[in-house]
Amino acid sequence: MRIRAAHTLLTALVLALATAGALAFQGFERERSRETVAYRGHIASSRELTRFLAGSRQLTASVQGFAATGDPLYAQAYWREVDVARSRERAARALDRMALTAEERALFSQARARSDALIPVETEAMAAVEAGERERAIELVFGPGYLRALRQIHGPGQQLQQRLERRLDQAISQQRRRAAAWWWLCRLLALLALLLVVGVPLVLHPRVVGEPLRRLNQRVRALLAGESPPPLALGPAVAEIRELAASMEAYQQMAAQLARDQWAKAQQVRITAALQRLHEPRALADCFLRELSPLIGIASATFYLRESGRERLRLVGSYALADPEGASPCVAFGDGLVGECASQGRPLELMAPAAEALAIASGTGRSPAGGLLVVPVSIGEEVLAVLELASFHPLEPHQRSLLNDLLPLLALALEALPIASPLL
After folding, report:
1. Do 346 and 218 have their domain in common?
2. In the structure, what pLDDT confidence band is assigned to residue 123 with cuts at 50, 70 and 90?
3. Of the ranges 28-32, 131-135, 222-226, which one carries the lowest mean pLDDT score?
4. Are residue 11 and residue 134 in the same domain, yes or no?
5. Of 250, 277, 304, which residue constitutes the final position of a domain?
6. How would DSSP label each residue in 268-300?
7. CATH of the domain at 383
8. In total, how many domains does the chain have?
9. CA 320 to chain centre
10. Domain residues for 195?
11. 319: left (phi over 0), alpha (psi -120 to 50) or beta
C-alpha cells in the first residue's frame, strides 16, 4: 500500500541520514585524533630540541666556568653531562626518530655536527686547566673562534625550532579546521533527520495517525460508558503507528547518545584548554579536580604526582577533603591504595570503604564515602600521577567513560609541565 511504501521510503531516508551522520561523526573523531597526534608531536619535538640546546649550553657553561675559576665542580658538571645525563645524545636520538622534513633534518644535523666539533676543544681546555695553563684554557673557550662556533650551533637550532613550530602549528590548525567541517556536517545531518522524522509525519498525521487515533478514542470512550462499540477498523494504521513509535524511540536514543558524546567532547576541549594555560603542578592538579568533580559526581578527591626519577608520589592537590591535614603528603609505590595503584598501573575500586578513607564533609555534616576509586595517570607504561576519588555512589557508565577520556589529556598536560618544576 502507499502508506507502507511511504513508511519504507521514510525509514530508508532516516537510516541513510543516520548512517551518514555516524560516518560524519567518525570523520570528526578521526580529525580530532589527528589533531591530538599533531599536538603531541609539537610538544615532543619542542621538548627534545630544547633538551639538545640546553645540553650544549650546559657543556659550554661548565667548561667556561672551569677555565675561568678552576673550580672542580664545573669539571664534574661537565663530565656528568657528557657521561651520565647525555642530554644531547638522548635528544638527538629522539629527534632522529621523529618525522622531520629534509630541511629540518639538515638543520639539526648541522647543529649536531658543530656541537660535536666543540668537544675536542673543550676537552683540551679542561686538560689545560688541570695542567695549570688557565690562560691557554681561557683563550680556547672564550676566544672569538669558540664563540663563533657557538653561534653556528644555536643559529641552526633556532631556525629548526622556528620551522618546527610553524609546520606543526599549521598541521594542528588544518586538522582543527577539518574537524570543524565534519562537526558542521554532523549538525546538518542531524537537522535533516529531525525535519524528516518530525515534518513528514505531521503531513501524514490527519489521514494515517489522526483518524485511527480518533476512532480508537471513540472506542475507549464507548467502553468507559458501558456501551458495546462495533469492531475497530484501523487497517494498516495500527502497524504503522507501532513502527513509528519504535523508530522514534530508536532515534531519541541515538540523539541522546550523540548529545552525551557531544557534551563529553565539549568538556574535554574545555578542560584541555584550561590545563594548557597552567604550568605549575599544584595549579594544574587543583584545576583538574575542580573541573572534574561536578562532572562525574565526585564529592572529594586527592591528586598525587610522581616525583621525577623516583617511585614515590607527592600530594599536590585536593578537593573538598574533610580533613586536609590528614592526607598523606608522600606515598611510596606499593604503600596503601594509592601506592598499590601506582605500582600496578591499573585502577582500584572499593565499595563502602573504611571510615578512615576519604571522608565527605559539607556544611551540614560529615559522612564516609560510599565508593572509592583510585586511578593511575599514565603514558605508556609510565605512571605520572594517581587520583583518589571518593563519591556517595558508584560512577555511572557515561561518567566512567568521561573520566577515561580525560586521563590521557591530563597525562599530556603533566608531561608538558616544565622540567625544572620543584615538585617534579
Report:
1. no
2. confident
3. 222-226
4. yes
5. 277
6. HHHHHHHHHT--SHHHHHHHHHHHHHHHHT-SE
7. 3.30.450.40
8. 2
9. 24
10. 1-277
11. beta
Domain boundary among 228, 261, 277: 277
Domain for residue 225, yes or no? yes
- Cα angle 374, 330, 417 (rounded to 5 degrees) comes to 80
CATH code of 54's domain: 1.20.120.1730
Q: Is 410 exposed, middle or buried (0-12, 13-18, 19+ CB in 10 A)?
A: buried
Instruction: Say if residue 288 is in the same domain as residue 273.
Output: no
Q: Residue 260's pLDDT is what?
A: 78
Q: Report residue 196 as a C-alpha cell.
A: 524528516
- The helix (run of H) or strand (run of E) holding residue 408 is helix 397-415
C-beta separation of 271 from 412 below 8 A: no
pLDDT one-digit tens code per residue, 362-411: 444 455 666 789 999 998 889 999 999 988 778 888 888 888 899 999 89
Same-domain check for residues 226 and 351 = no
**How would DSSP label each residue in 164-204?**
HHHHHHHHHHHHHHHHHHHHHHHHHHHHHHHHHHHHHHHHH
Within a domain: residue 69? yes
- Tell me the CB-side half-sphere exposure of residue 389, using CA atoms within 13 A: 27
Residue reference for cell 489521514: 207
pLDDT at residue 336 is higher than 80: yes
- 105 part of a folded domain: yes
- Distance, in Å, from the CA atom of 290 to the CA atom of 273, rounded to the nearest integer, reads 14
- Check the CA dihedral 40-43-44-46 and report its sign: positive
**Based on the domain organization, do 319 and 249 belong to the same domain?**
no
- The answer to whether residues 271 and 409 touch, using CB atoms and an 8 Å cutoff, is yes
Q: Are 261 and 187 in contact (CB under 8 A)?
A: no
The whole-angstrom separation of Cα 163 and Cα 101 is 10
Dist. CA 4–CA 201, nearest whole Å: 13
